[in-house]
Fold this sequence. Notes:
It is a single chain. It contains 21 helices and 17 strands. The protein has helices at 45-57, 140-149, 153-159, 166-172, 175-186, 189-222, 226-286, 288-301, 304-427, 434-496, 498-507, 537-600, 611-685, 690-756, 762-768, 772-809, 816-878, 884-909, 941-959, 979-994, 1006-1010; strands at 2-11, 14-21, 34-39, 59-60, 64-65, 82-91, 94-103, 117-122, 125-134, 161-162, 913-918, 922-927, 967-971, 998-1002, 1014-1020, 1026-1029, 1033-1036. Helix 7 packs across helix 16 (772-809).
Amino acid sequence: MKILKVEFENINSLAGEWCIDFTDPSYKELDHSLFVISGKTGMGKTSILDAITLAIYGATPRQELIYNGGNGNAVMTSDKGTCYARVTYSCKKGTFVSEWSQRRARDKADGKLQNAQGTIYAIDNPHHYIFNGNTGAKGELGKANAELIQLDYSQFCRSIMLAQGEFSKFLTSNERERADILEKLNGTERYRRIGQKVGEHRSLANRAKETAQTAFNTLSEALPKAEEIAIDETLLKDLADKQKNLAIQKSDFEARINWRNSLNSSQDRLNKAEAELSKASSNKSSFAEKETQLAQAEKARECVSLYTELQGLRARKSADESALVKLQGEFKTSTEALSLIREKKATLEKAKNDAEQFIVESEPLWNEIRKLDENLKNAAGIKSTAESRKNRAAQELTKAESGLKKVQAEILTLEPKVTGLKEIQDNNAKDAELRGIVPQSENLVSTIRKQLKDISDAVNAKVAAEKDFTKADDKLKAATKRKQELFEEQQKLFENDILVLADIIQKHLVEGAPCPVCGSKEHPACNQQAGSISIDESSASSVADKIRDLNLRLQKADAFMAQCEIDKNRATTAQNAAIESIDALNHQKNETAEQIAALWKPWAEFNIETATAILNDLKQRQQQFETRQAELDDLSSKLAIARNNATIFEDAVKQAKENLASESSAFDKAGDEFEQIQKTRASKFGDKNVETEASTAASKKNEATAAYTKADNEFRNAENHCIDLESRIKSTSESIAATAEKIVNASANFTSAITSKGFTDEAAYLAASMPEVEFSQLQLQKKSIDEALASATRLREEAIDAIEKIKSERSDDIPLQDLLDQKKAVEDELNALQQKSGAAQERVNRYKMNLAKLQELEKDLNEKKAEAARWDAMGDWFGVKDGSDFATFVQGLTFKSLLKLANRHLQIVKDRFRLVAKGNLGFEVDDAEFDTPRGISNLSGGEKFLISLSLALGIADFASRNVRVESLFMDEGFGTLDDVTLEDVMNCLRSQQREGKMLGIITHVESVVNSINQKIVLEAAQHGHSIIKGPGVSQKR
């Protein structure tokens, strides 16, 4: 598994969006896959590792699961409303992107924290989400990623992400704590559960065996004797013969009864059929008259088409004769109207010709007058234009003279104002720089106040840490004294009760197993019948209780002392961090003060007490300068415009005077030409309008032409109408003649047809005809009567046949009731026999069923005994019911494997050291320079760090034994190491790099930082935030 890219926004002090791309080419260069993340304390170095675990598992080593902000459990930058962490990683299953995100309501810093969200998708299929939804207390995001990576959160934090405090955790923990670590590391909780399950199955198997034995015994004792069942079987055989004879008699009676019932039923059907036949015959007779009418109607229906055709021809001839009379009257009226229209047309034609002649004679004069009117119009236009131009020239002269006076007055007002303001601005020219200095100063003053508050908080934190250290140190001293007292009490117990202890150990020695005191596997005392020491059981029990009590108190003392050491270390770490923070903040405050002093130098000296008043003065100076400058710019612009306008107005006055003289001359000339043309026109046509005269003549001509055209159209229409009427009269007369001939033929055909059907004339035919509805109803009625008659006849014949058939099968004169009484007597006797045999049959059946069940219970009992024996054997091997024996066994194997892996790393950093197991979960250091193994407490600080590092790397190897780990991040200060030990550590880490791992180290130790070429550096920014610099680092805007 390899981390390819980390992206995050607003995580702790790292405000804004950041990206660290480990696929950047610089990480592929030689030695650059080993890099350092450095920066001062509190800059946010560990927050980068938080972003990695947050994006994949929704948790951080410092705060565990992050989802609702409870108890301060949040990572979002305090003044922000959103945050996210996103990691791109590769594993066996491909390359994936995992993102964790969280927001506050309205995306505002004061909003309520919302549920955390998580998404996972493959890099080559970003639209298909492997996981997408809420991720909270159940760690849904982490579980989904664990299935892809094959590492859960605990394994990830021990194989890829080694957080602060994890190095020495295994070294300083007691056996119980180591067992917990090993259980999480190897999942030995599974083996504990296996042991528990074995115990549960053993109990269940034995209970099942006891239940099966009880069931077998109960049924075996309840079975009756075989002799009793034999008597019941003999009785059943005798009763069976009697039942068989009675059953034959019963069947005979049932057959005779059924025959009698069939005969009676057939006779009933015959009687019913004869009644139906009589009813149908009566209905047939009643319908005879209507049947005759129906027959006549059927004959008349065959002549319907001929009669319809004849009636159609008669109607057509009558219609044509009426139309001919109407056409003849209309033709006479149209001929008289045509003569009148012809006379009107001749009169209108003469009026049209006279109007056309008048226009032809008047056209030459009209054209001459039109030309004079055009010339007169043009002359009037020229005169009007000349007059307008003359007036406009006079107005322009007046306007130019007025504008010149106004501009000259404005110049006299503006010149002294501009001169005065310019002198003031020149004297205060430095104030122009305040526009940039004031906002910058506000930010710096706000920053320095924040720094002073942070310094105060850090001083308080330092004081609190010193108090915590003193308190923890006092507790440790008291606990050390108490532990020494317990040791002395234990030593005294051993001295006083040595004989009792020896007897207890001797009784529990097992041949072939090591002695818990000396470790020897040979125990001569095992072959002796009795020892030389005689100790009663009550003394041994009392000594054992004392030993267990002392051991328990010693364990509690060790645990309390370890907690005190942890508290001291935490207090020391917090104190150092506070001191570093105070130094850093003082340095930042001094730098900020120097920046402010440099900015304010031309106007004032910086003092944090008077900073607000000075800032207000500077703001006021800036505003006054900018106001005056704006006023000066405005007045200068107005003065320049006024001077330019004065020159323009002087030129305009001169030009206007010349233009007025020229336009006055042109106006006088145009007036003379207009009067001359007007006199000529009046002498030839007076004041009449030529177009009015021409239009009047044209209107008269058009009216005459329209009237003539209308009369001509009326004449043509009347003439055509007369011709059309004459044609229609002729065609109608011909149609009447043709129809009369067809009527003769159709009448002959109809008469022939009805005669053939028996009708004497047309009246007889019409009398026989019947409406369609009535005809259909009679047909249906006839069909129903005929069908009923046929059905009744058929049913009577079938009933007669059935009676004859039944009589041929049997002849029995005994009445039906007698047969029923005899049958009942047989059934009563048969029922009595069945009741007598039922009890015996029930006893026999129950005996056979229980006997078969007893055989099944015996088989089940044998199986349960075998199953219980198997689980007893397995339970003896796995140990006690709670599974602790088996879990302890597996943890011991895991611990030995872990020591082998740790020794591989320890050989690189310190080849004279080797870790060897001691007891179940303890170990010592085999030092080549010492004759005996060394305990952990006998190691120096540097040696402990080397062993802790080896164990941490061994744990990482073990946790990732099924996953290839190509990225490793270590968050450790290295501050307690000397130069030689530090070089050993770096050699070990470089060996990890040579194995193909990309290795990132988080530290602030300069010697470590300087020894690594590839660096990611965190620096302080404004408002308590930090910025990141280095290869592959980018900030999104």
